[in-house]
Amino acid sequence: MRVFLRLSTLALVTALVAAPRITPAATFAGLNPCTPVAVEMIDTIDSGNARPGDFFRFQSINAVTAGAGIVIPTHTVGYGVVSVASPAGRNGVSGTLVLEPRYFVLHGRHYGVVLDHRANDLVRNGKSGNLPGYLGAIPIPGVSVAIGAFNFFHHGNNIVVKSGTMFVVFPSDSPSVERCQRSRSN
Description:
There is one protein chain. By secondary structure, the chain is of the alpha+beta class. The protein has a domain at 23-129 and 157-176: Lipocalin, CATH 2.40.128. 18% of the residues lie in helices and 31% in strands. It has helices at residues 2-18, 143-153, 178-183; strands at 37-41, 45-46, 55-60, 64-66, 69-72, 77-86, 96-106, 109-112, 114-115, 123-125, 160-161, 166-170. The chain is elongated and about 55 Å long. The model is unreliable at 15-24 and 128-152 (pLDDT under 50).
């Protein structure tokens, strides 16, 4: 029984030591996490065919430096995920799209980023195309019925975030980046 207990303990310790370790995303050494990084979409995303969980690509527009060194080279590719996607529908319901950039890939490592929600437009809704509701209040027989029927049967517009659309990220995925969002909002 003692031999079994010792062998079981040894096997457990060996398994724990050999288990892969989960490491957090790398950080950009020497770069202030509140440094705005201008990026642009590589892919075009359409609310008509995008699904939550789909990935998209973006890239840095300019090189980002810290001191005399380049920390994020020009055209460094990053990846994000479609958080919300809803196609346009009947009754003038517009499409909805929410994109969330996640990380840059540099030298085979992932470097987390956070969207600067004050300086971009990655949360969008398409236009409904509905006729204004106050037109239905016109006291001419049949006009309000026609407007209501038009608004019921026509299709809203999908939203498209095109390749080349620019937005800004912060080069950190730490919760402390929230202070960056607040510090420039006044």
